[in-house]
Amino acid sequence: MTILKTTNLGRTFGGLKAVDNFEIYLDHRELVGLIGPNGAGKTTAFNMLTGVYVPSYGEIQFCDESIVGKKPYEITQKGIGRTFQNIRLFKDLSVIDNVKIAYHQNVKYGVVSGIFKSKKYKKEEEEITEKSLELLSIFGLELKHGELAKNLPYGEQRRLEIARALATKPKLLLLDEPAAGMNPQETHQLMELIRWIRDKFEITILLIEHDMSLVMNVCERIYVLDYGKIIAHGNPTEIKSNPKVIEAYLGEEVTI
Ligand SMILES: Nc1ncnc2c1ncn2[C@@H]1O[C@H](COP(=O)(O)OP(=O)(O)OP(=O)(O)O)[C@@H](O)[C@H]1O
User: Fold this and answer.
1) Pick from 211, 209, 216, 217: which is nearest to 241 by CA?
2) Is the pLDDT of residue 110 over 70?
3) Where would I find the ABC transporter domain in this sequence (predicted)?
4) Residue 51: CA atoms inside 13 Å, Cβ hemisphere, count?
5) Distance from the alpha carbon of residue 18 to the mean position of ligand 1, in angstroms
6) What's the CA gap between 20 and 8, in Å, rounded?
7) 164 lines ligand 1 (CB under 6 A)
8) Position 132 pLDDT exceeds 80
9) 3-state secondary structure of 134
10) Which residue owns the Cα nearest ligand 1 atom 23?
């Protein structure tokens, strides 16, 4: 079942077509990679899918509904969660509060209930705390729940970002360079975790990554962007041997 489909999607900045004719589909429970050299347009594509940028043209269908023109928070509520290339945590809040804030996007009590701290409010709060701790334990962060996010080592901040994104209960999770700045051992563990998350939460994952071993090992299908256009699409074996992909990566410090 296809949950996301884009048609002739594009974004221009002045005269630059940062992304052009971007056409992808994602099926339920797929793990798909989006790769390409620096400046190819990967983050711009993510920004359109999540409402951070309004597309200059084209269509995005998510769960059979157009999400073009919707605000980022509306798209989050519809079921697209994401992480950012540059980590965006509330650095001066505790680890658990970072996750709880994300959960609050889906709670049912109203403002009045919140102000007067009704029974329903307290029950919801207890549930959110419990669920947040459960989520933190998946990411090996439960013992650090009281620490300030800014005091976590880099790899743990990246994991906390994924936990936050999952707390918004996404059907589709977009990960923008989840392994950036991680050492090989952390990257390997993350790879396992990403696969596990997809299975446990039964979600679709689209990830941007520069670490080719991670992409090739973890993704079932891969789209390759170059100068804003998709130049290749296929499984890892097909992508590795695609001449257009090899050419696009010439001069980059990566082995594919
Ligand atoms: N807000 C913006 N204003 C002007 N140009 C932009 C803007 N955002 C992106 N661009 C340009 O669009 C192109 C694609 O950028 P983008 O960040 O999407 O690439 P990327 O593939 O994510 O790169 P990287 O791998 O380096 O993160 C680049 O030429 C970039 O300079």
Assistant:
1) 216
2) no
3) 4-252
4) 18
5) 6
6) 7
7) no
8) yes
9) helix
10) 39
Q: From the CB of 197, is ligand 1 less than 6 Å away?
A: no
Ligand 1 centre to CA of 191 (Å) is: 26
Strand, helix or coil for residue 232:
strand
Tell whether ligand 1 has an atom less than 6 A from the beta carbon of residue 43.
yes
Q: What average pLDDT score do residues 55-68 get?
A: 97
Higher per-residue pLDDT: 212 or 128: 128
- CA 40–ligand 1 middle distance (angstroms): 7
Distance CA 237, CA 182 (A): 25
Of all protein residues, the one whose alpha carbon is nearest to atom 6 of ligand 1 is 13
- Identity of residue 192: E
- Cβ atoms within 10 Å, residue 204: 24
Amino acid occupying residue 60: I
What gap in Å lies between CA 212 and CA 170, rounded to an integer?
25
Ligand 1 center to residue 19 CA distance, Å? 9
Cα–Cα distance, 175 to 33 (Å, whole number)? 9
Q: What is the ipTM of this complex?
A: 0.95
**13: Cβ below 6 Å to ligand 1?**
yes
pLDDT, tens only, 16-43? 999 999 999 999 999 999 999 999 999 9
86: β partners = none
Domains of the chain: 1-79+170-255 (3.40.50.300), 90-168 (no CATH)
Q: How far apart (Å, rounded) are the C-alpha atoms in residues 255 and 61?
A: 34
Closest residue by CA, ligand 1 atom 14 = 41
